[in-house]
Specification:
Strand content: 5-15%
Low-confidence stretches: 6-12
Largest sheet: 3 strands, antiparallel
Order of helices and strands: HEHHEEHH
Number of strands: 3
CATH architecture of one domain: Orthogonal Bundle
Helix content: 55-70%
CATH topology of one domain: Arc Repressor Mutant, subunit A
CATH superfamily of one domain: Winged helix-like DNA-binding domain superfamily/Winged helix DNA-binding domain
CATH class of one domain: Mainly Alpha
Strand order of the largest sheet: 1-3-2
Length: 175
């Protein structure tokens, strides 16, 4: 869960936990120097060590896409790779917690969503069990209803027989 956030989004702009440090580093440099920065400005950062030379520019572009998604940069198209510069949102974003806060908030949101889904699943399971129990009770009630009807008929019949016997005994005692 902590590896990737927003899996529904395009894989190229997905915010990953390992991206936080480089994104914060880029934002800090953009704010501090308020100048144009290109891939060359950041290629010596440890984040880019794991990438082959041809993939480093693609990775920088992916990071630019993330920054752009949060509307934190101005992009200057310049040949093979783009240059970036801070905009009016960059400093405010950093002061309100930056990508560390975004990532933490997203983890909390995902955790709450998973808890809610777990509770919904348990509730659904409970509802299914209650429905089965209700069906069972309803069928038992139907059987009991038929049984009660039969017993009522038998009781009425016995009552009528007792009444007839009583009348016969009264008649016999009068005669």
């Amino acid at each position: 869960m902590r590896q990737c956030i927003n899996k529904k989004e395009n894989n190229m702009t997905m915010l990953q936990e390992k991206d936080i440090a480089i994104l914060e580093y880029i934002i800090n440099n953009l704010i501090e120097k308020n100048d144009l920065f290109s891939y060359k400005s950041f290629q010596s950062h440890s984040h880019f060590v794991e990438f082959k030379n041809e993939d480093k520019i693609k990775e920088f572009q992916r990071l630019i896409d993330i920054l752009s998604k949060f509307n934190l940069i101005k992009i200057h198209l310049a040949g093979y790779y783009n240059s970036i510069q801070s905009n009016q949102n960059t400093l405010n974003f950093k002061q309100t917690g930056g990508f560390n806060k975004v990532y933490r908030d997203e983890l909390i949101r995902i955790e709450k969503q998973q808890e809610r889904e777990t509770l919904e699943n348990e509730l659904a399971k409970s509802n299914l069990e209650a429905n089965e129990l209700n069906k069972s009770i309803a069928s038992k009630n139907e059987i009991d209803k038929k049984k009660n009807r039969t017993e009522r008929i038998i009781n009425i019949s016995i009552g009528v027989l007792n009444l007839i016997l009583l009348v016969v005994q009264v008649l016999i005692s009068l005669c």
